[in-house]
Amino acid sequence: MTTIHYLTTTKGLRLKKFKFKGPVRSQTDPDLVQAVAAFITTQKDTLQTIQLLAACLHISPLVGQSLGNLTALDILVGRERRETAGAIQTVVEGCPRVSHLRIGVTAGDFDLNYPRLRAILGWQLLSFEAWSSLRVSVSKDDIADMARAWPTLKKLGIKCRPLMAGPGLPFDRQSPGRWRTPLSRLADIISEFSELEDLDAHFFYDLGQRLGSSLQKLRLGFSALPTSKAELDAMGMFMAAVCPPGLHIHHSYPKDMQRFVRAGRDVGHRWDDLFQKIEELHGGVKVRVGCILEEDDGMWFRVLPHEAELDSNHPETL
Length: 318
Known about the structure:
alpha/beta; 3-stranded parallel β-sheet; 8 helices; 25% helix; 18% strand; disordered C terminus
């Protein structure tokens, strides 16, 4: 008789936490699944935390269980062929009070778009941690979906456990995007999760990658420059990432104010430092700086003070 069989027949156990760390083999063991499921059933009224850290189990012992007091769950999921979306959905329905979830993908990528994983959005989570042995894929839309499902999330973990080629060296260190999250995603996470307090993620720098844009002219008007060099460089990096090379920038004032200000590159060293930073990140392509005349179509919503009165001939116009 195994330990788990013995515990199942033991009288008087009322456990709040159950952790099972079984064999490392990944092939599902039906007998073990049945034994663990039977034991969980005997403790269903008191269990608050379950950790199933055995690749040969995955979530199978939880399918069909009704665990009304369970609040924390640490589980592994395998390949799509081993588990269906319905299996996780069943667990969500049977354990409706889970608010802390840690989920690992042992043989594949973590991708919230997989049907088997989207079911976890049915929980009202306060903490969520996801890891994979291959790749963790979390898009901007995924973050928005999670934020809508878990608006009060306090802790978020998104990371990978890559295979190792040597002591402390990831096998794919030359391809950082394979198992890390783009640093640009940090802004999405912070903006979407208003109550987030703890973030655990493996990032790679991607802010130098330009976004697709058809923008040709940029009027910065009364824009103010930051005072520190670090902030000015950050502004240049951001503008280089979102604006196409060769952009025509007019940092100054509207057409009727041009007589009061200087135009072109002769505008002060801080503006020129900004332009140079953008040019550096654009591979030397020059920023075109100067006066951009306002076309008539740019005046649609402009109302001068003396014109802001009702026109008796055209009462529909202010």
